[in-house]
């Protein structure tokens, strides 16, 4: 679409002509001998120029706005042709008959213009809104018709020429529709000029209605004060056409927003009452009963219809709002408000019938990493599917509600009175199984689990909020037990809950207060005992809580979103200690750090590792990064890209806790790591099946050129078994417990002559 140049000589001439015509009328429209000719030519010229501007707009615009200005151009052409016809008749004859052939062009103007202007406004949405719009137009039309100065006399119209009747009705319809349109929202590009069009048509409609009223009584003459209304209406239409093709940066949009956007809906709602007010004023003013009384009756009926439609809309809207208030927008499930409304009723019903129920609080484990890794759109798909799985495996009389981001509450009704606990636990286990099945989203296979807490009614409580609290507390105990499990509420957990809240509060800012420190556990060669490296393990000592086990605070850190800053602190502290050891002469000292899934998923993770190494002056080969299977398999391609980037820095990588997660051989083949760490749980059965598994894993790892570290070696017999099974490196209490810095340095000093670098990958 091409844009014409903003300056428009045609528009300037139109505005100048309108100003000169207004001045001429104010001066008394001299001289009397040529008054009709001058006035008619002014009319014709202003509308001809506005027609040219409208045609220009139609030519340069496209789509709905091309159609809009095409209809407006046709309307302006009809009016201009009518005015030309009127001018010729007036010049040749002493008086112009009414109606004259010119009226045909004048009558065609309103419907064509309305057709065009309709393209600029948003159409009513739906049948109800369309009916409301039509009723508004009818009410305003009849109300205007009842006003004597612009109204219609039914008896007169019945005897008037059809052209006159059509002109009266079309002009009233034009004025009415524009009044209603003015209260509605135009399409966005049209907001820069619909205000001018509305004003133009209000001037035009008012002038033409008054003209019809005057001419039928022989009171109109060219040059009357009415004439500038027509001329300025044409000028404003030309101005709107000009603005419609101006570049957006060159115009200031006259928005219907702001204060008018607030007032317009109120005016729309008041239309029926305004109509009633006008008609009653008209009746009390003593108007003749033949016309206005009939119009009053019709208006009253329309007002009743309009108010009935409004009541229907209000009732429909109320139902919609009620649904929205009690439904979760993402999943379509009942929300927390619905649960708070329905749960007390269910508990009351259970108490009356003596049939117990159970409240299950479900929290999706590690759902946040899915959002962080793959975005909220993927997270939403997983969440909807998880909710659907839960809902599919409930009975029709059970209740499910989404009460938080990844939290659901299920109310199991009508439990077996003889064994309500077993019934609820069986249902919870079944839900866990279904939620553990992989989720496929955009070609990815994602997995998650859930932690479920169970509270029984009436065995635990008969209060709805207390039941939810108990189930929530039981869910937290399930998380503490390792996730992907369920727990039933026990009353002696209250003091544990208080301690948990205290732990949460103290963990905030623990690093800034200097409460964290690293202990270092040695990893040694399985055959020679040579020190290979240390694993940095986080310890927390709080003045209030004392020494807090990682098994207690790491899950809390993950839940509270603190695991990433804690992981970054560990990386910095480990590199700082490496620099100190290297400066002291222990140049072959190496340390491995554990990295969480959230930290590894950060887009700038590798850059942050590189920056930390550079800041502390530590070579990449002195650092190793330990990652779990679940961290790496979420997105194998992205994980391998980061692993390759770490290897380019010299940083080694290890697959930690192998055997406790997916332990898929296909994943092991595809993951580009240097080391495989066999989980400590295999040591507990090293003399039985555990030993066979360690041997198989070790041989497989060696075939894939991976070094094997066996964790949890606590006895000399276990060490001998690992040696016989082919393990490369061991770690565990038989070698050493995790050591504070001073003791680790002593261990390092004692092992210094035998310290050897890792073989190259």
From TrEMBL:
<feature type="domain" description="GGDEF">
    <location>
        <begin position="355"/>
        <end position="491"/>
    </location>
</feature>
<keyword id="KW-0812">Transmembrane</keyword>
<dbReference type="InterPro" id="IPR050706">
    <property type="entry name" value="Cyclic-di-GMP_PDE-like"/>
</dbReference>
<feature type="transmembrane region" description="Helical">
    <location>
        <begin position="38"/>
        <end position="56"/>
    </location>
</feature>
<feature type="domain" description="EAL">
    <location>
        <begin position="500"/>
        <end position="752"/>
    </location>
</feature>
<dbReference type="GO" id="GO:0071111">
    <property type="term" value="F:cyclic-guanylate-specific phosphodiesterase activity"/>
</dbReference>
<dbReference type="InterPro" id="IPR029787">
    <property type="entry name" value="Nucleotide_cyclase"/>
</dbReference>
<feature type="transmembrane region" description="Helical">
    <location>
        <begin position="68"/>
        <end position="89"/>
    </location>
</feature>
<feature type="transmembrane region" description="Helical">
    <location>
        <begin position="195"/>
        <end position="214"/>
    </location>
</feature>
<dbReference type="InterPro" id="IPR043128">
    <property type="entry name" value="Rev_trsase/Diguanyl_cyclase"/>
</dbReference>
<feature type="transmembrane region" description="Helical">
    <location>
        <begin position="101"/>
        <end position="121"/>
    </location>
</feature>
<feature type="transmembrane region" description="Helical">
    <location>
        <begin position="266"/>
        <end position="285"/>
    </location>
</feature>
<dbReference type="Pfam" id="PF00990">
    <property type="entry name" value="GGDEF"/>
</dbReference>
<dbReference type="InterPro" id="IPR000160">
    <property type="entry name" value="GGDEF_dom"/>
</dbReference>
<dbReference type="InterPro" id="IPR001633">
    <property type="entry name" value="EAL_dom"/>
</dbReference>
<keyword id="KW-1133">Transmembrane helix</keyword>
<feature type="transmembrane region" description="Helical">
    <location>
        <begin position="163"/>
        <end position="183"/>
    </location>
</feature>
<protein>
    <submittedName>
        <fullName>Diguanylate cyclase/phosphodiesterase</fullName>
    </submittedName>
</protein>
<dbReference type="InterPro" id="IPR035919">
    <property type="entry name" value="EAL_sf"/>
</dbReference>
<feature type="transmembrane region" description="Helical">
    <location>
        <begin position="133"/>
        <end position="151"/>
    </location>
</feature>
<keyword id="KW-0472">Membrane</keyword>
<feature type="transmembrane region" description="Helical">
    <location>
        <begin position="229"/>
        <end position="245"/>
    </location>
</feature>
<dbReference type="Pfam" id="PF00563">
    <property type="entry name" value="EAL"/>
</dbReference>
């Amino acid at each position: 679409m091409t844009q014409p140049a903003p300056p428009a000589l045609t528009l300037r001439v139109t505005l100048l002509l309108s100003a000169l015509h207004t001045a001429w009328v104010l001066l008394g429209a001299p001289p009397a001998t040529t008054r009709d000719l001058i006035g008619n030519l002014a009319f014709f010229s202003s509308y001809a120029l506005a027609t040219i501007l409208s045609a220009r707009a139609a030519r340069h615009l496209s789509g709905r706005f091309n159609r809009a200005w095409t209809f407006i151009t046709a309307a302006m052409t009809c009016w201009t042709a009518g005015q030309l016809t009127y001018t010729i008749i007036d010049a040749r004859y002493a008086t112009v008959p009414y109606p004259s052939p010119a009226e045909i062009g004048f009558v065609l103007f309103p419907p064509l213009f309305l057709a065009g202007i309709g393209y600029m406004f948003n159409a009513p949405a739906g049948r109800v809104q369309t009916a409301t719009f039509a009723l508004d137009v009818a009410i305003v039309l009849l109300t205007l018709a009842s006003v004597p100065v612009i109204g219609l006399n039914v008896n007169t119209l019945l005897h008037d020429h059809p052209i006159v009747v059509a002109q009266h009705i079309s002009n009233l319809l034009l004025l009415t529709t524009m009044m209603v349109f003015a209260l509605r929202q135009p399409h966005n590009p049209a907001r820069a000029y619909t205000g001018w069009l509305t004003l133009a048509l209000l001037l035009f409609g008012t002038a033409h209605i008054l003209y019809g009223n005057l001419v039928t009584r022989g009171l109109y003459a060219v040059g009357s004060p009415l004439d500038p209304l027509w001329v300025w209406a044409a000028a404003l239409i030309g101005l709107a056409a000009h603005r419609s093709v101006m570049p957006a940066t060159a115009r200031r949009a006259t928005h219907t927003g702001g204060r008018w956007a607030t007032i317009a809906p109120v005016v729309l709602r008041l239309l029926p009452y305004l109509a009633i007010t006008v008609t009653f004023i008209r009746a009390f003013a003593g108007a003749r009963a033949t016309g206005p009384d009939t119009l009053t009756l019709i208006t009253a009926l329309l007002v009743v219809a309009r108010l009935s439609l409004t009541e229907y809309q209000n009732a429909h809207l109320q139902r919609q709002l009620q649904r929205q208030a009690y439904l979760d927008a993402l999943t379509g499930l009942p929300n927390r408000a619905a649960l708070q409304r329905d749960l007390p009723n269910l508990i009351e019903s259970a108490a009356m019938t003596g049939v117990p129920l159970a409240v299950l609080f479900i929290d999706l484990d590690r759902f946040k990493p899915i959002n962080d890794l793959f975005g909220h759109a993927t997270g939403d798909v997983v969440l909807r599917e998880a909710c659907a799985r839960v809902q599919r495996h409930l009975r029709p009389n059970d209740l499910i509600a989404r009460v938080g981001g990844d939290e659901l509450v299920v109310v199991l009704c009508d439990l077996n009175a003889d064994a309500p606990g077993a019934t609820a636990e069986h249902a919870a286990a079944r839900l866990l199984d279904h939620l553990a099945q992989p989720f496929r989203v955009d070609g990815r296979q994602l997995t998650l689990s859930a932690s479920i807490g169970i509270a029984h009614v009436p065995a635990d409580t008969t209060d709805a909020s207390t039941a939810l609290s108990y189930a929530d507390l039981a869910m937290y105990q399930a998380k503490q037990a390792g996730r992907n499990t369920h727990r039933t509420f026990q009353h002696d957990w209250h003091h544990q809950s208080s301690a948990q809240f205290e732990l949460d509060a103290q963990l905030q800012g623990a690093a800034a207060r200097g409460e964290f420190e690293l202990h270092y556990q040695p990893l040694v060669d399985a055959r020679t005992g040579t020190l290979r490296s240390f694993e940095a393990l986080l310890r927390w000592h709080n003045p209030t809580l004392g020494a807090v086990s990682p098994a207690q605070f790491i899950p809390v850190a993950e839940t509270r979103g603190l695991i990433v800053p804690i992981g970054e602190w560990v990386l910095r502290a480990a590199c700082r200690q490496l620099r100190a050891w290297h400066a002291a002469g222990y140049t072959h000292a190496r340390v491995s750090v554990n990295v969480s899934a959230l930290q590894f998923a950060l887009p700038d993770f590798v850059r942050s590792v590189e920056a930390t190494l550079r800041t502390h002056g530590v070579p990449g080969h002195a650092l190793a990064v330990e990652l779990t299977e679940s961290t790496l398999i979420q997105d194998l391609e992205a994980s391998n890209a980061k692993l390759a980037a770490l290897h380019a820095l010299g940083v080694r990588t290890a697959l930690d806790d192998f055997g406790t997660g997916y332990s898929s051989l296909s994943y092991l083949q595809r993951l580009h790591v240097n080391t495989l760490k066999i989980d400590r749980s295999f040591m507990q059965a090293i003399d039985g099946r555990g030993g066979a598994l360690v041997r198989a894993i070790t041989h497989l790892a060696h075939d894939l050129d991976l070094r094997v570290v066996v964790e949890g070696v606590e006895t000399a017999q276990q060490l001998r078994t690992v040696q016989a099974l082919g393990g490369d490196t061991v770690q565990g209490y038989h070698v050493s417990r995790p050591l504070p810095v001073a003791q680790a340095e002593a261990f390092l000093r004692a092992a210094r002559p035998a310290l050897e670098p890792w073989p190259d990958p």
